[in-house]
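Technical annex, item 7. During the second reporting period the consortium partners agreed on a shared format for inverse folding records so that results from different sites could be compared directly. Each record opens with the tokenized structure and is followed by the designed sequence. A conforming record, contributed by the partner at site C, is shown below for reference.
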């Protein structure tokens, strides 16, 4: 049963990470969309909203990388693969 509890805790952690990223992405789209609309309606040709989109976009990409390409998750996958190989060799 303790293994099941640990698995549930990991699943909850991953769910929080993913929903946090999705919230971040939705807020990004809404705010940047509004900024681009304001920039377009001003018609001054400066296109300042693109700088905001790029700066915040880097943060959003970083958040996505940590959420979906977590180094610890990769380590766990490689470890599980190696354990499986070693167990098959033991048979």
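Designed sequence (site C submission):
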């Amino acid at each position: 049963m303790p293994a099941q509890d640990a698995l549930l805790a990991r699943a909850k952690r991953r769910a929080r990470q993913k929903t946090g990223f999705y919230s971040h992405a939705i807020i990004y789209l809404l705010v940047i969309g509004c900024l681009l609309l304001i920039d377009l309606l001003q018609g001054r040709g400066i296109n300042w909203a693109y700088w905001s989109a790029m700066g915040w976009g880097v943060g959003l990409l970083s958040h996505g990388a940590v959420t979906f390409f977590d180094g610890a998750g990769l380590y766990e996958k490689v470890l599980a693969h190696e354990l499986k190989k070693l167990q098959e060799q033991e048979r």
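The radius of gyration is 21 Å. The mean pLDDT is 87. All partners now use this format for quarterly exchanges.
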